[in-house]
């Protein structure tokens, strides 16, 4: 789960699959545009890019 804070609002972004977050692609406090890759999830030994 990742929380995105936009002004006075907070949005929770759930992962599209079960697994382990192996890489964060943006740092805390960074400004991101829609469609930005937020992280990479490892599932069953394979990497899965998570665009949420």
Structural write-up:
With 52 residues, this protein is an all-beta fold. The protein has one domain (2-50). The chain contains no helices and five strands. It has strands spanning 2-6, 9-13, 20-24, 39-43, 46-50. The model has no long low-confidence stretch (mean pLDDT 80).
Mean pLDDT: 80
Net shape: elongated
DSSP strand (E) fraction? over 45%
Work out the helicity level: under 10%
Short characterization:
The chain contains no helices and 5 strands. The protein has strands spanning 2-6, 9-13, 20-24, 39-43, 46-50.
Keywords for this entry:
0% helix; mainly beta; two-stranded antiparallel sheet; 52 residues; three-stranded antiparallel beta sheet; single chain; elongated
Break the fold down into its secondary structure elements and pairings.
Layout: E1 2-6, E2 9-13, E3 20-24, E4 39-43, E5 46-50
Antiparallel strand pairs: 1-2, 3-4, 4-5
């Amino acid at each position: 789960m990742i929380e995105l804070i936009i002004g006075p609002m907070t949005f929770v972004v759930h992962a599209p699959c079960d697994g382990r977050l192996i890489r964060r692609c943006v740092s805390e406090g960074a400004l991101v545009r829609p469609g930005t890759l937020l992280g990479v999830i490892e599932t069953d030994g394979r990497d899965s890019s998570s665009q949420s």
